[in-house]
Amino acid sequence: SQKIEQNSEALNIQEGKTATLTCNYTNYSPAYLQWYRQDPGRGPVFLLLIRENEKEKRKERLKVTFDTTLKQSLFHITASQPADSATYLCALDPSGYALNFGKGTSLLVTP
Amino acid sequence: GAGVSQSPSNKVTEKGKDVELRCDPISGHTALYWYRQSLGQGLEFLIYFQGNSAPDKSGLPSDRFSAERTGGSVSTLTIQRTQQEDSAVYLCASSPEGPGANVLTFGAGSRLTVL
Fold first, then answer.
1. Average pLDDT over every residue of A40-57
2. Helix (H) or strand (E) segment spanning residue A18
3. Among the listed residues A19, A30, A26, the one whose alpha carbon sits nearest the alpha carbon of residue A88
4. How many Å separate Cα B108 from the centre of its chain?
5. Smallest CA–CA distance from A6 into chain B, residue
């Protein structure tokens, strides 16, 4: 069956460091992968989309890599800030209809 | 509207009652999605609309769940004879087009508590 795996353990890092979150998937051949941010009590908010023919995508302090051989995406936040504390979700499109989401990884950035 | 609006934001109901949850997508967005998020769980896909049609209802958990969309805009998710396991946050999202590399814009969700 298709699976999207994100580290269920919360990631705690110090302000200013780089946070790296992992998304692994099985039994998918995605044309693209998306990352979303979710704050408590709110819906997810889109951050970045990376296509299968792109190795890396950047947006401000965010960087996403996509390795279709390893079936893995890495999400990096450089110079992290306490305001970056949230749950980060990766999402894949298995059927062309709706995105499937991972359970997310909680990030806590402490001053 | 400027964003995706959902109502009610919170709903507490008794087991066995019917509930209706409403979603008002971004104006002009043809695709609309319903997801469910239970405590500590990921987003569970329920149903997708393209215009007023629902080509993918595969995620609806049971026949107690139904959804409709009228005028290519507002959608209603109805849960009949609610059960305690229906308690969750129901999230609606819309995107400009149908399937493809479309970015979803989510509403804040409707939190349903079944006593």
1. 94
2. none
3. A19
4. 11
5. B42
